Automatic annotation (TrEMBL):
InterPro entries: HAD-like_hydrolase, HAD-like_sf, HAD-SF_hydro_IA, HAD-SF_hydro_IA_CTE7, HAD_2, HAD_sf. GO terms for molecular function: metal ion binding; phosphatase activity. Catalyzes the dephosphorylation of D,L-glyceraldehyde 3-phosphate in vitro. This is Glyceraldehyde 3-phosphate phosphatase. Belongs to the HAD-like hydrolase superfamily. The lineage of its organism: Archaea, Methanobacteriati, Methanobacteriota, Methanomada group, Methanococci. SUPFAM superfamilies: HAD-like. Keywords: Hydrolase, Magnesium, Metal-binding. Its cofactor is Mg(2+).
Length: 231
């Protein structure tokens, strides 16, 4: 009997890849306008290297960018980049079409809903709150609060425990095979892969029980699974 659905966040409930790239590019342009002496293409190459080395959750990408280019700390240019990034992020941060309707439909079926996501707790909550979808979720579980992230099975077990769900009672929805679908499948959850974001071409290796192109397709899958248990 299906009792709950766990969701990844980035590129599963909203278009993370697109909005982050646009926000970073606009931030770099604003920093150059504020006096950062470098071409846009060179600055983006340096920033992408910093992100690759330090990770997307590192809090001082723009600090390191300015230091790498000018050799010193420049609070005016750094702050210009931060403000532009956040302004663009707020303007673009929207859930995928049909996300809210899908969450309403799932709640109407009496299901528990949760988010299990890599990232900083405050940043992930900010996204959910800005998109207006946070009230739908019974639990929001982050790698920062647990101390380990995906694809560690202990992280997923912790999420299930927080939700008071067994794997066989749970559907897991995510975009990445390696970090989302495979570990959920290994634990015995029903896996649904949404073909969105930069990892949509990743080889599946039959870890996905279902694949969907739009989140609204999830409701039909839930109904099928819930009806099976009634027979």
């Amino acid at each position: 009997m299906i009792r709950g659905v766990l969701f990844d966040l980035d590129d599963t409930l909203y278009n993370s890849s697109e909005f982050v790239e646009i926000a970073r590019r606009e931030a770099v342009k604003s920093m150059i306008d504020a006096g950062l002496d470098i071409s846009f293409e060179e600055a983006m190459n340096i920033l992408n290297k910093i992100i690759q080395d330090k990770g997307s959750n590192y809090g001082k990408h723009f600090d390191d960018l300015v230091k790498a280019i000018s050799g010193r700390y420049d609070p005016k240019i750094i702050t210009t980049g931060i403000i532009t990034y956040h302004n663009v992020k707020v303007a673009l941060l929207r859930p995928y079409p049909h996300t809210i309707k899908t969450l309403i439909d799932l709640k109407a079926r009496g299901l528990k809903l949760g988010v299990i996501t890599d990232g900083l707790t405050i940043k992930q909550w900010e996204k959910l709150i800005r998109m207006g979808i946070h009230p739908f979720f019974d639990e929001v579980i982050t790698s920062e609060e647990f101390g380990l992230g995906k694809p560690h099975l202990e992280f997923f077990k912790y999420g299930l425990k927080r939700m008071n769900l067994k794997p066989e009672e749970t559907i897991y929805v995510g975009d990445r095979v390696d970090k989302d679908i495979k570990p959920a499948k290994d634990l015995g959850m029903t896996t649904v892969r949404i073909l969105k974001g930069k990892y949509k071409e990743m080889e599946d290796n039959n870890y996905s029980d279902y694949t969907i192109n739009s989140i609204q397709e999830l409701v039909k899958i839930v109904d099928e699974l819930m009806n099976k248990t009634k027979i």
